[in-house]
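Predicting holo structure, S-adenosylmethionine bound.
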Amino acid sequence: MEPSIYEFPDIFRRVHMERPGEIPAEVRFLKEIWSRHGNGPVRRVLDIASGNSPHGQILAREGTTVVGIDRSPTMIAAGRREFSSGGLRLYRRNIVNFSLPERPFDAAILMSETFPAIADNDALIAHLRSVGRTLRRGAIYTIDIDRHDGIELVKRRRLWRSRRVQIGLLRVDVREFHRPIAWRDAMHSIYELECTIRFPGHPVRTRDLIPVRYTTPPTIDLLARASGCFAMVAAYPDLSFTRSLDRCRGRWFAVLRRT
Ligand SMILES: C[S@@+](CC[C@H](N)C(=O)[O-])C[C@H]1O[C@@H](n2cnc3c(N)ncnc32)[C@H](O)[C@@H]1O
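Done. Tokens:
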């Protein structure tokens, strides 16, 4: 089987076109959400699908206790390597259904538009209940969600775009495909990411199938209610508190409160 791009933590960020300063800006935005919607100081944060927890590393450096969960041992090892001075603990867990030997958290985050990794209704409810069990009452769960409308429905696997990413001397050839999905599926389509990493003398090809779900604020509002442990209290476009949702460019943030 071909490896996943997530086995290469430094490369995946560049492939995902992350811009310099993006993660610190997201952390500032999260802190503003907590001060607007939280009911007390945020001292303990759960980073869900944390990877190497870039957001958690910033928060932990500032004195917040952060716990990250992720299923990838490579990502967890990278996080532990990058941040070994305490304040950040990483556990290997599936985000769908999990428990942790930890005291309740004041906030949880699910960043980098990873939400569609939770595929069906049972999994979505199990996820929200798992998160709910780890949070104190009034805690805030913020979910970063891609705006997916406009993606064409396809009947056959089709090349969407190809591009080249240069990381120092290393070249990565990226091909992105849209793959069809059954009409009755909970998802909208599947995005296939193929990367050929041109390591000198031994190119490595990675392949990831990333589900795409068209998730809107009313969907999250309904899910939060159905879980019995959250209420959706706000939805913000991009990283803005002033722009209207109608002018959302690329993604939006669902803000849920633990009831
Ligand atoms: C795009 S990365 C985001 C990592 C990090 N939050 C960030 O902002 O850089 C997505 C992460 O989700 C993890 N992941 C995807 N599905 C998962 C699941 N069902 N359970 C646990 N981790 C999952 C992957 O291993 C990967 O590290």
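The domain at 15-148+214-258 is CATH 3.40.50.150 (Rossmann fold).
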